[in-house]
């Protein structure tokens, strides 16, 4: 475990996802095995090789004033929505919402995005090209910069211990949670608003991922397209959304009588140094991240009873991750735990995925039930570990821990360890 013995706990949860506009609706949909993947209705969509995605269930315009949205990129707006839910669920005050307060000098923010304000960048270029530079919004730069969401959340809640945005592709927001843990352990903050956001469902993004052959092309069955571990999986499904966790020192949380959902026990990182987009097929880098997470958390392999896998539904990635799990934990331990891949329902939120799946892992520990992986009709012959399918699975009572894995283009590997409170 880290030399600093400060225990970091999760006290607040917020999300807006393809499954629901908040945490309760998202969790309910996960347990019901409902897909958030739907056809796209864009003009000219028939020209694209992929014509579906996991779009938000609730539009930001349904919960945020239009005058405020005009100065926000979509990824910033949804980060603020998720942060507000998390903040209030942690029992803190904001505006007319009654609650406790926190010293701004002891409050930090770490909210990541893998891509940032893609919609703003592309739409602003269209304005420039069609109407001239004078019509480009003066808010373009703060709307497109990847740290925009983190900065805006820091301003919104008065966070002055530091506002950070880590960019590591699809591992970005898992890394954000790890950095938040370190901020609290090191004494730089008592409370950190941590998470991730992504909103880049756009024709260019669909075309670019499509040209890489990274996306599923199951256009006739969008809800069945994301199918981790299935023999006929053919790529991931692009999703959008935001998730935020309120982390704080256990001492601070108990002093104010906060509900503790789980313990954020530790985080591990590694780099594949293999390929800019393909994972190391041996899974050695991912295994290092998991082992380092266990060491940082002071856990043994046998303490892990569940893994929320990165599980994107790509032919190479799913199998490499399972190899990594066995290498990190040992064959016997790996065969004794249960694994789920919730991207089968949410799609892949890219830079927001690690935060959402960490949030789901926290709920899994708190509620004692693992959501099932959907669409696994014909299990890949190479899969020899216990994938939760069909119905949600109950976890045993008592002390236990879980891992959330997030891996990103560039060879970024992050594993976050959580313990039941």
From TrEMBL:
Its EC number is 2.3.1.179. The keyword Lipid metabolism applies. One of its GO terms (cellular component) is cytosol. It catalyses: (9Z)-hexadecenoyl-[ACP] + malonyl-[ACP] + H(+) = 3-oxo-(11Z)-octadecenoyl-[ACP] + holo-[ACP] + CO2; a fatty acyl-[ACP] + malonyl-[ACP] + H(+) = a 3-oxoacyl-[ACP] + holo-[ACP] + CO2. The keyword Signal does not apply. Keywords: Acyltransferase, Fatty acid biosynthesis, Fatty acid metabolism, Lipid biosynthesis, Lipid metabolism, Transferase. Residues 5-420 form the Ketosynthase family 3 (KS3) domain. Involved in the type II fatty acid elongation cycle. Catalyzes the elongation of a wide range of acyl-ACP by the addition of two carbons from malonyl-ACP to an acyl acceptor. Can efficiently catalyze the conversion of palmitoleoyl-ACP (cis-hexadec-9-enoyl-ACP) to cis-vaccenoyl-ACP (cis-octadec-11-enoyl-ACP), an essential step in the thermal regulation of fatty acid composition. This is 3-oxoacyl-[acyl-carrier-protein] synthase 2.
């Amino acid at each position: 475990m880290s030399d600093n013995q400060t225990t970091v706990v999760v006290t607040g949860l917020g999300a807006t996802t393809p499954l629901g506009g908040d945490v309760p609706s998202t969790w309910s949909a996960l347990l019901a095995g409902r897909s958030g993947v739907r056809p796209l209705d864009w003009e000219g969509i028939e020209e694209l090789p992929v014509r579906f995605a996991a779009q938000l269930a609730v539009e930001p315009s349904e919960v945020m004033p239009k005058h405020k949205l005009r100065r926000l990129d979509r990824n910033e707006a949804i980060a603020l929505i998720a942060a507000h839910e998390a903040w209030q669920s942690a029992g803190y005050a904001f505006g007319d919402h009654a609650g406790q307060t926190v010293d701004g000098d002891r409050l930090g923010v770490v909210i990541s995005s893998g891509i940032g304000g893609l919609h703003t960048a592309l739409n602003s270029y269209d304005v420039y090209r069609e109407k001239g530079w004078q019509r480009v919004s003066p808010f373009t730069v703060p709307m497109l910069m990847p740290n925009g969401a983190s900065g805006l959340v820091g301003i919104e809640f008065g966070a002055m211990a530091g506002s950070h945005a880590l960019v590591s592709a699809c591992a970005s927001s898992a890394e954000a949670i790890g950095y938040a843990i370190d901020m609290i352990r090191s004494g730089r903050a008592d409370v950190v608003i941590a998470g991730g956001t992504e909103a880049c469902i756009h024709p260019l993004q669909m075309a670019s991922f499509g040209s890489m052959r990274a996306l599923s092309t199951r256009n006739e069955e969008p809800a069945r397209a994301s199918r981790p571990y299935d023999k006929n999986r053919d790529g991931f499904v692009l999703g959008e959304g935001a998730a935020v966790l309120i982390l704080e020192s256990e001492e601070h949380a108990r002093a104010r009588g906060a509900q503790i959902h789980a313990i954020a026990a530790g985080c591990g990182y590694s780099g594949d140094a293999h390929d800019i987009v393909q994972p190391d097929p041996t899974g050695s880098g991912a295994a290092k991240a998991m082992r380092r997470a266990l060491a940082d958390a002071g856990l043994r392999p046998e303490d892990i009873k569940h893994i929320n896998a990165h599980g994107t539904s790509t032919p190479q990635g799913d199998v490499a991750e399972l190899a990594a799990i066995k290498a990190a934990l040992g064959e016997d331990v790996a065969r004794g735990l249960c694994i789920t891949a919730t991207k089968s329902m949410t799609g892949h939120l890219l830079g927001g995925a690690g935060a959402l799946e960490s949030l789901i892992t926290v709920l899994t520990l708190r509620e004692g039930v693992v959501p099932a992986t959907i669409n696994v009709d014909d299990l890949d012959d190479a899969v020899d570990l216990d994938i939760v399918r069909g119905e949600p699975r109950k976890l045993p009572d008592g002390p236990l821990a879980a891992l959330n894995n997030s891996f990103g283009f560039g060879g970024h590997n992050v594993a976050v360890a959580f313990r039941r409170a």
